[in-house]
Specification:
CATH class of one domain: Alpha Beta
Radius of gyration: 34 Å
Number of helices: 5
Structural class: alpha+beta
Strand content: 15-25%
CATH superfamily of one domain: Phosphatidylinositol 3-kinase Catalytic Subunit, Chain A, domain 1
Shape: rod-shaped
CATH architecture of one domain: Roll
Largest sheet: 4 strands, mixed
CATH topology of one domain: Ubiquitin-like (UB roll)
Strand order of the largest sheet: 2-1-7-3
Distance between the termini: 97 Å
Order of helices and strands: EEHEEEHEEHHEEH
């Protein structure tokens, strides 16, 4: 005679430390086990119970330990290779699964749970450490872009503002009273010709002193007045 109520230990594949237990009757179907898993882990599993796939946590005739369950990985089709998928309509007491005389052993894992991609929340997701790591990955992990100001046009300028998350509000310009005969020639960025004949524009750092002299010479007096 099979024991009616038993405790089955389950592990979510791919989630470390996810071993938990559910209480079921041996006369229940595999589909009932899915319902029990969903009820036990509502904050971790974010899909309907029937979307879960469950596998018998047994390999080479031996049931898995917690360490063994944590080492299980999914193949390219999203299945734990080498484990038997449990059919929803079959009873737990079916000889293929646990049989009539099943007795759970200490330290065993009985069921592997595969949750659809994007429908599982790990135990530490949302914790401060995890959030800090995610922010770091976004702000530091991205490949840095380098802009040479002397080459930035209107399109690149808008992209630069977007990357820096800078919003610009358009305003009406105020006429600048420069005085009569005080037009200023545009600053010419220096460049050099390398051996292959290609022209290379010098960087802002290389032209800092020259540009400072240009500003002081042309609009230095106006700036002092302001």
């Amino acid at each position: 005679i099979c024991q009616l109520e038993v405790k089955l230990f389950c592990a979510i594949v791919g989630v470390a430390g996810s071993v938990f237990s559910v209480r079921v009757d041996m006369s229940d179907s595999v589909d009932d086990v899915k319902d029990a898993i969903k009820v036990k882990k509502p904050d971790t599993i974010k899909c309907e119970a029937d979307k879960l796939q469950v596998y018998l946590a047994k390999k080479d005739g031996a049931r898995l330990t917690e360490a063994g369950a944590e080492s299980v990985v999914l193949d390219e089709h999203g299945h734990p290779r080498g484990f038997e998928k449990m059919m929803p309509s079959l009873w737990l007491k079916n000889a293929k699964y646990f049989g009539e005389s099943f007795q759970p052993g200490e330290g065993q894992v009985h069921v592997l749970v595969v949750v659809p991609e994007g429908a599982v929340v790990s135990a530490n997701e949302g914790s401060p450490d995890t959030m800090i790591k995610e922010i770091h990955a976004v702000t530091v992990g991205k490949k840095r872009k380098r802009y040479v100001l002397s080459r930035v046009g209107s399109t690149q300028g808008r992209q630069l503002l977007n990357d820096l998350d800078v919003q610009v509000e358009l305003v009406r310009t105020v006429p600048f009273a420069a005085g009569e005969g005080s037009s200023v020639d545009p600053y010419k960025w220096e460049s050099v010709i390398i051996e292959c004949g290609k022209e290379i524009v010098l960087t802002e750092e290389q032209q800092r002193e020259r540009y400072r002299e240009y500003v002081e010479r042309n609009i230095g007096a106006v700036l002092e007045e302001k």
